[in-house]
Specification:
five-stranded mixed beta barrel
Length: 187
Amino acid sequence: NSPGTPSYQISALDSRLRLDACRDMQVSLPTGNRLVGRTLLRVQCIDGASWSVSVPVQISISVTYYTAARPLAANQEIRAGDLAPQQGDLATLPGSVILDPAQAVGRTLNSAIAAGNPLREEMLRGPTVIQQNQKVRVIFREGGIEVMNQGTALNNAQEGQPVRVKVGTGQTVQGTARADGSVEVGK
């Protein structure tokens, strides 16, 4: 499932290479290689001969990604007008570049960014859903059983982040902050 339009260019094999006739081949991606940018594909004859070769390939994926429409300050909440769409090759962009404005709108910048620079996932943080000392609902889940409790958050947390909670017994448990301000503990 690709976010853009792919294209590829296969490099020519060495003309001195002599391969026996093959009725069927299998193409695979060697371990550690990505299906974008300069990469190698492994071509192996599986019917008619016994050979395999690595074929250099340049794979490009033209995507729409999002940059800062103007200089943006640290701790600024991103709005749709702060984003400018650009076209580019996914192979040359950081892996965490924002490809969907919904990934950025409503989130807050960790640090300032200059106009025209691509926005990346690690530059953004979600809203704080739990504040330190806030009373929270704690949901313990284990093997299909769900138990609810109350507690006091010991740290701030954004959705999906770890949060420590002191429960009624004085015990401290760690769970995951949810968007509704609750904390989920267990499986």
